[in-house]
Amino acid sequence: QFIGSWKPYSDPNYNWETDPFLDTNHDLFKVARQMVRLKTTCDALIFGNIYFRMTGSKNGDPYAFSRLSDKQEILTIVNPGLKSIPITKLVVDHYLNSTPGVQYINIFNKTQVASVIVENGISYLQFPSNFVIN
After folding, report:
1. I need a surface site. Which of 13, 68, 87, 97 has the fewest CB within 10 A?
2. Per-residue model confidence (pLDDT) at position 2
3. Within 13 Å of residue 36, how many CA atoms lie on the same side as its CB?
4. What is the Cβ-side half-sphere exposure of residue 55, based on CA atoms within 13 angstroms?
5. Residue 39, helix vs strand vs coil
6. Please, are residues 90 and 53 in contact by the beta-carbon 8 Å criterion?
7. pTM for the whole thing?
């Protein structure tokens, strides 16, 4: 039906919600929608600075970063590789995480909980013993 370029955003009658090629029941669409909603409701994700917590030395290695506001830290762990990787603990901001036992919850799996620990004046997020990132 279409030949050449198409710019739906320039069509005043275009409504993405009724686009027959957009499957709003697809898992990818649902996750993307959740991420957008989270991004627009969380100060650390809207205004926060970024701090890398873990980086790999080669392509495919996992990495982790935090977004920090003056009241909140959001930790993101990404595994672009094909192997599951165990993680025991990661450094987090001591000013925001100086109370041991404070819990962080995985937004993709709310049964996974990590807890703040403090060792020698450094705050860490301690993951459960069987925690892996896929």
Report:
1. 13
2. 55
3. 6
4. 4
5. helix
6. yes
7. 0.77
